[in-house]
Amino acid sequence: MGDLIKNCSENGLGAINLYKDSVVLISGGTGFIGKVLIEKLLRSFNVKKIYLLLREKQNVKFKTRLKEIFREPIFNVIRESHPDPASVFSKVIAVDTNFQNEKIISADDMKLLEAEVTIVFNVMASVKFNESIDSALDTNVVCSRKLFDIVSKMAQVRSVVHVSTFYSNCNRSRIEERIFEDIPFGGYSNLLEILSHLQENEKKCLTPSILGTMPNSYTFSKKCAEAMIQQSYAHLPICIFRPPVVTSAYREPIPGWVDNFNGISGMCVPMIQGKFYCCMAEREIASHTVPVDYCVAAMLAVGAERARTRGEATGTVPVFNYATDVNNIRWGDFGKWISKGCESLLGRLFGRYALVLTSSRFLRQMFVWWFILQAVAADLLLAFLGKKRQHLRTVKRLFALEDAARYFAMHGWTVQNDNMRRVMNRMNDEERNLLKLDIDRLDWDDYFKDFLPGVKAALARSYQRRLSRLGG
Fold first, then answer.
1. What values do phi and psi take at 338, rounded to 5?
2. CA separation for the pair 402, 204 (Å, rounded)
3. Is the separation of the CB atoms in 325 and 414 below 8 Å?
4. Which of 35, 224, 271, 315 makes an SS bond possible with 354, Cβ 3.0 to 4.6 Å?
5. Better-predicted residue by pLDDT, 174 or 283
């Protein structure tokens, strides 16, 4: 048995050979995870081509959006280290896509994809927790179904990775590596049909009955997408990858890099601005969190594993829970960890106590009223100076986002991750060096040294973009 395990480890997953000269199709490539995936494939693997499904957005053409992606700092490492970065970026080809149409791409593009694509990553998702049920189902189920319909026609495909979420079955205390198909109203197809005949107010009234014990439309729609894949696309070499909360990069390509203020990054913003902030959370509960570069490395490893096992016809879509019970941060310790990125001793001392977490609804409500009072006062001053009011609107948006995410800070889960551990055990040394993904060995103390500076840099970029739009 020992020799067999050693053999498996030496042979590895075959990741390097799989991605070398591969033609990769990515949906959701403009998102946080998607950008890191594109950058990693271009920088670390000799891929032949990446087809990126892009739509026109806010009157910005799909090809223009691709150019804008490559201007972002995340691609600086390629720009600065490669002798001909333009040749690297030219491997990425934008495909004009409209998921509102039944045929989401043109016939000519379809012919190209059918003939060339070997690997597919579906990273597309709506991550708005408070989105209407029909909108969430449209993006996370219907659009994915349209994608997999065209993937089914691609004869060269060796692996398909669908990115779901660790919380797709969060109404269960233990998250198992399996798909649950207990969808109300006879399944997602019936549900979509019922919703198509209802008015907006009727949909709102029906939503609590649809969600049941699920906390929001996001987790419910991701659960439906998994059931849809099992029922309709198990014939593909497809797998479901479930990451938990994905945060800023640890090492690659830039330590601390982040491009949004969701989750923990958003919690840091008031602290950066020199304010105290209070969140609802159970202090002793573990927060399942992974850096985005670790998440992408795990996606690539899982993709290679699925290609390796694609000939094994089990009829069950494999699921990989990328989470652990071993090396997690407690919610109550986030202030301590985040403050490590403060530049001064005073900043570290202040930062340690600037983020207050409480399970008391009363204390939380007192803080909300205090924050709103400050925002109203600040807006009155702006109005007196003849400037646009903005503070109250920002505060309301911040609290709305936190209210939607509160469920995850107030509940805990245990993890089954046998499939994911088998992938990690199969990796050889070369793959482990290329794909850093072992959360159990992640040094959180080292990670958080770059966390706060990364959020500050993202804030600065956001501010510069606003100035640019205003012509300032």
1. -65, -35
2. 21
3. yes
4. 271
5. 174
Q: Is 4's pLDDT higher than 60?
A: no
Best CA proximity match to 314, nearest among 199, 419, 162: 419
Backbone φ and ψ of 38, nearest 5° = -60, -45
163 token code pair? 């990115």
pLDDT at 2 over 70: no
Structure confidence by residue, pLDDT tens digits, 449-467:
999 889 888 888 877 776 6
Give the tokens for residue 215: 């906390």
95-to-53, 57, 396, 414 alpha-carbon distances in Å: 5, 14, 37, 40
Q: Which helix (H) or strand (E) holds 245?
A: strand 245-247
Q: pLDDT tens-digit profile of 51-105?
A: 999 988 877 788 888 888 899 999 999 999 988 999 999 999 999 999 988 899 9
Q: What is the mean pLDDT of the chain?
A: 87
Nearest in space to 301 (alpha carbons), one of 29, 92, 12, 49: 12
pLDDT of residue 278: 73
Whole-angstrom distance, CA of residue 194 vs CA of residue 406: 30
Mean pLDDT of 289-298: 96
Find the radius of gyration of the CA atoms of the chain: 23
Contact 278, 367 (CB under 8 A): yes
Contacts of 136 (CB under 8 A, 6+ apart): 126, 128, 217, 218, 220, 221
**For 201, what's the count of Cα atoms within 13 Å in the CB-facing half-sphere?**
0
Structure tokens, 371 = 């924050």
C-alpha distance across the termini of the chain, in Å: 67
Q: Which two tokens stand for residue 332?
A: 């109550």
**Tokens, residue 152:** 């089914």
Cβ-based burial of 93 (10 A; exposed 0-12, middle 13-18, buried ≥19) = middle
47 Cβ contact list (under 8 Å, min separation 6): 19, 20, 21, 22, 23, 24, 41, 91
- Residue type (1 letter), 108: D
Q: From residue 113, give the alpha-carbon distance in Å to each of 31, 99, 153, 227.
A: 22, 16, 9, 26
Strands 238-242 and 159-163: parallel
Average pLDDT over residues 18-37: 95
* SS3 state of residue 87: helix
Q: Using 50, 70 and 90 to split pLDDT, how confident is the model at 409?
A: confident
Question: What pTM did the predictor assign?
Answer: 0.90
Task: State residue 464's pLDDT score.
Answer: 75
